[in-house]
């Protein structure tokens, strides 16, 4: 799954090269093996991965989920199916511009 891949990236890279291996992570709140909040929390707790941008892209939009996303350290949250917002967010992150 995603976490296994990211753990392998962390094991085989330093902080700088991890960002070269993974530019940005887009995940959903609802995923089969590990939910997006848990994945984001694991990323933020890892010393190599913690600076990677994480976008939560989910149809489960609520104030509670927004708070959970903030608590686990999501860089930004985008509601499905706002593909244009997701594309603009990814463009901003990949261009190196600061996120609001």
Number of distinct beta strands: 3
Any idea what the shape is? Answer: globular
| Residues in β-strands, percent | 5-15%
- Distance separating the two termini: 29 Å
Number of helices: 5
Mean pLDDT: 89
Helical/strand content category: alpha/beta
Q: How does this structure look, described?
A:
The structure is a single chain. With 100 residues, the protein is an alpha/beta fold. It contains five helices and three strands. The chain has helices at 2-12, 15-21, 36-45, 63-72, 83-94, and strands at residues 25-27, 54-58, 76-79. A three-stranded parallel β-sheet has the order 1-2-3, with helices on both faces. Helix 4 (63-72) links the parallel strand 2 (54-58) and strand 3 (76-79). The longest helix has 12 residues, at 83-94. The chain is globular. The model has no long low-confidence stretch (mean pLDDT 89).
What order do the helices and strands come in, and which of them pair?
Layout: H1 2-12, H2 15-21, E1 25-27, H3 36-45, E2 54-58, H4 63-72, E3 76-79, H5 83-94
Parallel strand pairs: 1-2, 2-3
């Amino acid at each position: 799954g995603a976490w296994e891949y990211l753990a392998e990236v962390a094991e085989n890279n330093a902080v700088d090269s991890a960002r070269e291996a993974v530019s940005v992570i887009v995940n959903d709140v609802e995923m089969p093996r590990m939910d997006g909040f848990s994945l984001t929390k694991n990323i933020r707790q890892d010393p190599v991965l913690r600076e990677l941008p994480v976008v939560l892209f989910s149809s489960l939009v609520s104030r509670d989920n927004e708070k959970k996303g903030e608590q686990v350290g999501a860089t930004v949250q985008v509601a499905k199916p706002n593909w244009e917002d997701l594309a603009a967010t990814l463009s901003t992150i990949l261009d190196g511009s600061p996120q609001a």
